[in-house]
Structures are given as C-alpha cells and as structure tokens.
C-alpha cells in the first residue's frame, strides 16, 4: 500500500526516509457518501494513513468519483476530510459534468473542494500526437495536483520564518471560494491558479 509506505516515511530511491509533498489519487470506489463517518468502518487503515500524511503536511488530491446517481455525495477516498477533493467541469462557467459526484457545501464537511477541467482531455504520445481523450474526475485531479505543486514551490521560495505552514489547511483556504482565490460560479469553486497565487502572495 503506497499510502502506508509514505506515511511511515520509510521508502525512497536512496533508501532514506522520504515523504512526498503531494500525492495524486485518481481513484474512487464508485460509491456515494455524504461524509467520512460513513466509510470509517470500511476503510479504517486507509483513513489512518491519510490522517498521518495530512499531519506530515502531505497534500492528498483525490478524484470525487464518476458515478453520479442524482444525489449529492462523493466516492472514497475523496470524501475524507484529509484530502483535497476534485470534481470535473467541461468549461468555465458550467455546472459539473453529469457523471461527476459532488457536493456544493463547503469542505471539509462533505463538500467538494475544487472543480477543474475534466472533459475530453487529450493525452499525448512522446511525438506530441494525441493518443486518446479522457473524461472524468481522474483527469481533473492532475490539473489540481499540478497547481498545488506550483503553489508549494512558490511558497518555498517566498516564505519567511514566521510564514504559515504549507499544509492542507492552507491549500483548502487558498482554494476556498470565500477567500476570493477561485472563480465562484453558482457555488462551484473552479480552479484559477493566477488568483490563487495572488492570494498566497498576500498571505506570505
């Protein structure tokens, strides 16, 4: 289990303790939950590792799921409060994709943290030709993980001794629509890296 290995900090290419900055989890169990309590008896070990990683400052980015059944909710592990949950949209100023599981209440109380492009995203061969196009929350997570990686680097370059730690609480604050760091559209918090960087710059 990769989460177990990373939470213990016992694996790296150089056989030294290693903890990653960000882990992208483009997976879901395809069920629909309203809160983390509903899965606590099903996935206790994974929830435990996710909590440890969050405490270590590792940012987990999880796909909210692609089995929308007409009711609000997300799959696991996205429903955990110890991750950044990602829903998919087609274009800016649109509702979530019809397949996207999501909740519009503010995270971490079961709400989806951020929405990113997830409709017919092209995947390329090394020669730059398109191999296929993919749709869903799994491809949307890649945009968010990349954005958080950029935020992490930006934070590292500009932080002072008294700067706020770069952890899931800070990332969630930066992505929260109430912080004016993302595009708010009918309660959707749509990824906007430029506004998020500007907001981080104000905090540091």
Q: Tell me the strand order in the biggest sheet.
A: 1-2-3-4
Q: Would you count the extended β strands for me?
A: 8
- Our estimate of the beta-strand percent is 15-25%
| Helix-strand makeup class | alpha/beta
Briefly summarize what is shown.
The chain is of the alpha/beta class. It has helices at 2-8, 44-55, 137-158, 168-175, 193-203; strands at 22-25, 59-63, 84-89, 114-117, 121-124, 130-134, 183-185, 188-190.
Question: What does this entry look like structurally?
Answer:
The chain has 204 residues and is α/β, with parallel strands linked by helices. Helix content is 29%, strand content 17%. The protein contains 5 helices and 8 strands; from the N terminus they run αβαβββββααββα. The chain has helices spanning 2-8, 44-55, 137-158, 168-175, 193-203, and strands at 22-25, 59-63, 84-89, 114-117, 121-124, 130-134, 183-185, 188-190. A 4-stranded parallel beta sheet has the order 1-2-3-4, with helices on both faces. Strand 5 (121-124) and strand 6 form a beta hairpin. Helix 1 (2-8) packs parallel to helix 2 (44-55) and helix 3 (137-158) runs parallel beside helix 5. The longest helix is centred in the last third of the chain and has 22 residues, at 137-158. The protein is globular. The N and C termini lie far apart (36 Å).
Which structural traits does this protein have?
204 residues; alpha/beta; 4-stranded parallel beta sheet; two-stranded antiparallel sheet; 8 strands; globular
